Every structure is written in structure tokens, then in C-alpha cells.
Amino acid sequence: MNSDAAPGRASLDHWTRLWQRLGAVTPAEPVYRQLVARYSEPGRAYHTLEHVARCLEELDRHASLAEHPDEVAAALWFHDAVYDTRRNDNEEQSAAWARETLGAAKVAAPVIDRIGRLILVTRHREPPPATDADAALVSDIDLAILGAPRAEYARYQEAIRTEYAWVPEPAFRAARKSVLEGFLARSQIYATRPFAEALEARARENLRGALDALR
């Protein structure tokens, strides 16, 4: 993707202002170009710069829920910077790259630590801590697609299958079934009230429909 034509909140202008608010002392644009290059890698169909832009738009709508909105924004920028469907440590690698990049820019250590922790929330291995408002918000933003209108959710499902095109169909169906069942088994998919009220019911409907199709 041409970074000069990046979608919405994923533009260089928005990134530069965030970079400055984080207290970075190095130029913003080189890191931005690296992020754009990563999100434009071949094989990505959903985890692209458009996904980042949509996440940042959700943050704009729910900024009042954040304790550290700039750190939430930075975590959303970095959370899928490393994305290789043949690995199972993408979030850990994304967090490590964010820590390295932010450290080189002299961002304060507590800020870097919080951003790194928020990136790891997007593993979605368990619900976010109930006492961590920023973690709850990052998790809900990243999972907002589950509660999208049916047609949009269907396009998301197709994009995920494209990203895992190398996986044989039976193996993909089994693995995907496990992921979706895991979300349905939760007492609540969304950790914040606004997301739960707006998206919980539709997310469960989408997940049940996707599971029926996988079966």
C-alpha cells in the first residue's frame, strides 16, 4: 500500500501526532514507513493497515473508556506488526518490536511497558483483567469484527481463510472451530459495557453461524 494514501486514522499525520504525544525524540516517519510495509506484506487479507484504521476509529468513538488513550492507540498500531500464520507467537514478536522501536525513540519505560502489555492482550487467550480498563478496551476493539453486520463478518471469515490458504481444509476447519467455540464459551465476549450492549448478541449469532458452516 502507498502510505501516502493510507486509510483514515492510519495516516502519517495521525501517526506523527501520536508519536510526539508519546514523547518520542526520533522522527516519526521512518517508523511509520516500517509499519506500513509490515501491514502491506503479501498474504495479508484482514490484518492490514485498514484493520489498524478501523481499530483507531473504534478508539475515537470510545476514547472515554481509556485511562491512557495514547498508549492504547500505540498498542493498536503495533499489535499485528508481526503477522505470520505459520507462527504462534506473533503478538509476542509484535510486542518485542514495539518495545525495541519505542525504546530507541527514548519513550519513557513505563509507557513502553504498558504498550507492550496491551499488545499481548490481543492474543485473546483469556478475557482481559477486569481491573484493567485499557486492556478491556484493546480487547474489545480488536474483537469488534465478531459483532459486525452479517455481510461484513462473512468477508472477515473469507479474509482469514485467505491468510491461511496454505492450511488444508480439514485442518483449517478443526482449528477455526476450536477458536470460535472458545469465544462462544465465554460468559461474555466483550469486557466493556458499550461494546457488550452493542455487539455481544450479534457476535454470538455470527459465531454460531460460522460454526454451522464449518460443520
Largest sheet: none
Oligomer: single chain
User: Using DSSP, what is the number of strands?
Assistant: 0
Order of helices and strands: HHHHHHHHHH
User: What is the tally of helical segments?
Assistant: 10
**Given the C-alpha coordinates, what overall shape results?**
globular
Let me know the average pLDDT: 95
Low-confidence stretches: none
Description:
The chain has helices at 12-21, 28-39, 49-61, 69-78, 90-104, 109-121, 133-142, 150-163, 169-185, 193-214. With 215 residues, it is mainly α.
Task: Provide the fold topology.
Elements: H1 12-21, H2 28-39, H3 49-61, H4 69-78, H5 90-104, H6 109-121, H7 133-142, H8 150-163, H9 169-185, H10 193-214
Helix pairs in contact: 3-4, 3-7, 4-6, 4-7, 5-6, 6-7, 9-10
Outline:
This protein has 215 residues and is an all-alpha fold. Helix content is 63%, strand content 0%. The chain has helices at residues 12-21, 28-39, 49-61, 69-78, 90-104, 109-121, 133-142, 150-163, 169-185, 193-214.
Notable traits:
single chain, mainly alpha, 215 residues, 63% helix
